[in-house]
Amino acid sequence: MNTKHFAIYVADQLNKDKIVQAIYSGQLSIPAYPILNKKGALYSNLTINNFIKEELIHEHFDIATENKVSLSTSSGGQQKKALLNYLLSTNPAYLIIDGVFDNLDIIAQQQIVTRLLDIAPVITIIQILNRKKDILPFITNLFSVENKLLVEGWSEKRETPITHFTGNIPPPLHEFKCDQNPLIQFNQVNVHYNDVPIVKDICWQINTGEFWQLIGPNGSGKTTLLSMIYGDNPKAYGQNLLLFGKRKGTGESVWEIKEKIGYFSSSIIQQFDRMDTLEQMIISGFNDSIGLYIFPTDMQIQLAAQWLKLLNLYDQKQELFRNLSMAQQRLLLIARAMVKHPPLLILDEPTAGIDDESALLFTALVNKIADESHTAILYVSHREELGLHPKYIYELILDEKGSYGKVSN
User: Fold this and answer.
1) Are 147 and 236 within one domain?
2) Range of the domain at 21
3) Overall domain count for the chain
4) Can you tell me the distance from the alpha carbon of 109 to that of 315, in angstroms, rounded to the nearest whole number?
5) What's the whole-number average pLDDT of the chain?
6) What's the helix, strand, coil split of the chain in %, to 5?
7) What span, in angstroms and rounded, lies between the C-alpha atoms of 319 and 66?
8) Whole-number Cα distances in Å, 77 to 17, 67, 83, 85, 334
């Protein structure tokens, strides 16, 4: 293969988004491949988010998924496949790929690799990655980022030391009165979009304190089920769906449901591009606010301090959240979601975009929450994380009549 291709490893303590933009703009040059004056394309969540913003502002979409729907209403995997098709249609000389396998199931990953192999003879691929095992099979030129420069080769040293969480997780300020079980119950739930069946006869319940992982291929309906629990998906109305003891559509507001749920996805970090300190971020979780607008109580300050100590971030409590590493930001947002000890914690592709060492740290915290709280956990991911210990797995299996579910443990 005459065309050169490059893999650039970025450790979590670095700002990957800034590095990607610097490479794309030519400010951070790749040895032997100057990209100035070349037509390029960026395959990244940054690009997806920009297209989604355009959709919301102009109320039309330039990129459609396989189901002919907008990016904003599609799953992460569907978004990425649609973006790749769009970018390749512009005939770029080079393609910067960031997080190529994030949010994709195994079949979709294989399809992406096959597609990239097809274009590799004529388009230079510049892969940005956090997981070294995700390197594309045809790339042999390896670089890493050190002192704001690209240097040849990958260091095998541990980039982020594994931190052991000491002590128990802090208690809740007030116990939620949510004694009824199940917390969530789907009874023969069916969903169609534009006469296309998505899920069929879903029967599934989540009880207090249970640790579930939701799996299934792209397009199988995982995002649909999550939106029926956490969001205001109109498809939930008229269904036999119980949320915290009440049938959906019997008078509860979406905010009454959300106050009982802690929610995290990798994309949520973009909502917190403010000048808030670590302490303020934790305290804001008591009121589910983006920013702190009321004076906290002494007990809220004490509990925030306990969470920061657990995360080994107490000495940095007055630093800005936006200046933390990506892994530290995620740990802090999990603590923010857990300060109230909600009945349910939803983690949607939570390790997308972080390196292997940080993923181990993240899963250690999730396991700790599962072991030491009454909060039920719903963990959604295609990636099998080393050390993660869900007790139950709910698998969605694709079928032309709509995905059906299967429980395993």
Assistant:
1) no
2) 6-152
3) 2
4) 41
5) 86
6) 35, 20, 45
7) 43
8) 20, 13, 10, 13, 23
Last residue of a domain, one of 106, 133, 152: 152
CA dihedral 111, 116, 119, 125 (to 10 degrees): 170
Which of 111, 132, 152 is the last residue before a domain boundary? 152
Paired sense of beta strands 211-215 and 392-397, if any? parallel
Q: By the 8 A CB rule, do 218 and 77 touch?
A: yes
Q: Which three-class secondary structure string do you get for 159-197?
A: CCCCCCCCCCCCCCCCCCCCCCCCCEEEEEEEEEECCEE
DSSP tag of 121: T
Confidence at residue 61, expressed as pLDDT on a 0 to 100 scale = 67
CATH of the domain at 56: 3.40.50.300
pLDDT in tens, 264-284: 987 777 676 678 899 999 998
Q: 98 pairs with which residues across the strands?
A: 128
Q: What is the mean pLDDT of residues 218-228?
A: 90
246 and 116 within one domain: no
Please report which confidence band the pLDDT of residue 364 belongs to, taking 50, 70 and 90 as the band edges. very high
- 155-214: pLDDT as tens digits: 665 544 455 788 899 999 887 766 678 999 999 999 998 788 999 999 999 999 999 999
Cα–Cα dist 171/173, whole Å? 7
Q: What are the helix (H) ranges across 245-348?
A: 254-258, 278-284, 298-310, 326-338
pTM over 0.85, yes/no: no
Do you find a cis peptide bond into 197, omega within 30 degrees of 0?
Answer: no
Beta bridge partners of 241: 186
Q: How confident is the model at residue 68 (pLDDT cuts 50, 70, 90)?
A: low
CA distance 200 to 191: 7
Measured between alpha carbons, how far is 211 from 160 in angstroms, rounded to an integer?
27
Residues 11-35 pLDDT 10s: 877 878 888 888 888 888 888 788 8
Bridging pattern class, strands 40-43 and 94-98? parallel
